[in-house]
Automatic annotation (TrEMBL):
Species whose genome carries this gene: Arthrobacter sp. K5
UniProt-recorded name of the protein: ABC transporter permease
Residue spans crossing the bilayer: 12-30, 50-76
Swiss-Prot/TrEMBL keywords: Membrane, Plasmid, Transmembrane, Transmembrane helix
Domain of life, per lineage: Bacteria
Amino acid sequence: MTTKRLVLRGINWFMPAATIGLMVHFSVVTKSFLTGGNLLAVLTQNGPTFIVAVVAAVLLMAGYVDLSVGSTLALAGSAQG
């Protein structure tokens, strides 16, 4: 394998490994990090962002480079207060 492929393969696994590492670290340091209530609060608070991210990902995968989705999210956030 070439060096470029090895670097790209490492980049593909870096973010999931870093996320899992941070979750393990914070669950050891803080007792209330990986509780059901905290996970539910995180999912509830990030629901609208998740929906917009899924829609934007589908648009980008379909080949439509549409930046108006992000603009609409910013406008909705600023209008909400």
